[in-house]
Every structure is written in C-alpha cells, then in structure tokens.
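Appendix B, record 7
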Amino acid sequence: MTDALQVETSGETVGEAKWAALRELEKLQPGIDKAAVRFQVLSEGERGLLGVGYAPARVIASVDLSAVVEQEAPQEDSELGGEVRGVLERILEGIGVRAQISLREDDESLVASVVGRELGLVIGKHGQTIDAIQYLVNAIVWRGQVDGRKQVVVDAAGYRARREATLEALALRSAERAVSSERPVELEPMTAVERKVVHLRLKEFPGVGTRSEGTEPNRFVVIEPE
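Structure tokens (predicted):
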C-alpha cells in the first residue's frame, strides 16, 4: 500500500481551508504535485447572525507520497538545524515514533516538521506533548543562552496551523458573545503562544479588549466589552 500524507485544516470558507491545506502539505513535503491532492470536506462552515453559531469550514487533504516531484538534493542543515534534528530524533526514538524531520529556517525562526505515522503520539491531548517537546528542544539547543536566540517551532501533520485556526475562530465567537452579552468571557487555560494568537486576532476587533489572568500553567485570556 502506498504511503499517503494527510492534513486537516480549517478556514472561513471551504476554498480558504483547501488553500491552507495545500500550503501545509507543501511545507511537510516540498515538491508535491498539487493536482494529485484529494480533498474531503468535513464541514462547509457556518456563520450565524452576529457571529452566533459560527463554525469554520474544515477539510482533510491527502496525497500519495508517490506524487512528489523529484527535487534537487536538499541543502545541508545549518549548525542550529543539525542540532535541532539530532535532539528531536532522540526524543522521537524515546517515545517510539519513527518519522522523518523536515526543517525550514529563516532569519527569525526554525520550524521542524515531523512527517510520518502515529503522529498522535507526538501531538498528544490538546497538543500537550508537542508543546512539551518544543519546550525541551529549545531548552537543550540554547542551554540557557539569552541573546541571539532563534525560536524553534516543532510541528506535526500541520497541527500548528490547525490549532491557530481553531483559536482564531474561538476568539471571534467569544468576542461576539462578550459584545452581545455585555459581560466578560473567560477562555480555557492556554500556553503563552496560544494566548498571543488570541490577543493578536482581537487587537482590531471593535468593542472588546483582552487581558491575561491567572498563573502558569493555568493562565487564561479574558475578553471583555469596552
């Protein structure tokens, strides 16, 4: 049976969800033949009056790994990339996951994407495992260094993009509820990275303000009408 790569993404419309899926597949496996990608529409989305009942469109995109265009030999990892790859390989081996690691690096961050089967073990419940892996990788490769640090992001099967889309949809629904009820809305505890997604998404949302309350690891966002 031919191996296949699969991601689930969301968006305000089916078209946006499909486009996000194509981008994620390309990140996970550069050179994919986009014409060979198959889509399964899970939800066409819904946007009710004043946002009440809002639900994003969701799709699953899959493609056989045989539909990969031959690429030139990949460039060698940078010094940071090689260290990240080594640490991540040891962690994956320790939890019993066999997978490939794809690195994408720019001036601000390095994204290490895990590609393979049984990625649920890597992601964990509510992303707790992958967040812990990401924290551990950053702690090891930087070893207390403060200056010149580059953020290392660990991703698997497009989880980060899906989670960000889910958080943005939650933020919008909660902001609209805060406005309509004229009462503050408290969200579930989130990591600092996830709280930042909510704060940024609602920065320009009219009629609400956001703040974080509580102590780690139970710090959460409060959305209140202004």
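Remarks on this record: Residues 79-157 form a domain with the GMP Synthetase; Chain A, domain 3 fold (CATH 3.30.300.20). The chain has six helices and nine strands.
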